[in-house]
Amino acid sequence: MCGGRGTRLDADREKPLFEVGGVPMVDRVLRAIEASGVERAYAVTSPNAPETRAHLDVPRIETPGEGYVADLDRALSDARLTTPVLTVAADLPLLDGEILDRVLAAHDGGSLSVLVPAARKRELGVSDDATFERAGEEVAPTGVNVVGDDDEGAWRPTDVRLAVNVNTRSDARVAEQYL
User: Fold this and answer.
1) In 10 A of CB 121, how many CB atoms?
2) Which of 3, 22, 86, 174 stands the most exposed, by the fewest C-beta atoms within 10 Å?
3) Is residue 41 helix, strand or coil?
């Protein structure tokens, strides 16, 4: 997923192309996918990120840029995709193949939300503005999920590679500490 505006980042470039440790975040995420057991990758782009579209050298699924959920729904309706589908946001510069393989191993056939405890995000000093309660715990979405055909499960790792998604410049500074 790499078609958002990234307004909170307040950068002079599109969010997926924002560099963390000198490398665009979307390139870091693509490297992680390539190093994992994922068979095929598609970049989900939108009119909000034309430079990202031009930068990418992977098959793309175009969406209207109406927000993450609407664009994800549009992408999932693409005939090239069959469930289960691993979805990954482009703002996770610490991802690597090993952690993505762990997500896939935790998946049991249905959908899987990968959530981190909000307390872990606060401990790391990164933004946590999208938290919610699940099973009595305050959690935050990681930007990594598996969309399947069945009921939704949840996996709650505390791994920094999933807990740090870059929404602000402060988040980027934290990510660079862990590279």
Assistant:
1) 26
2) 22
3) coil
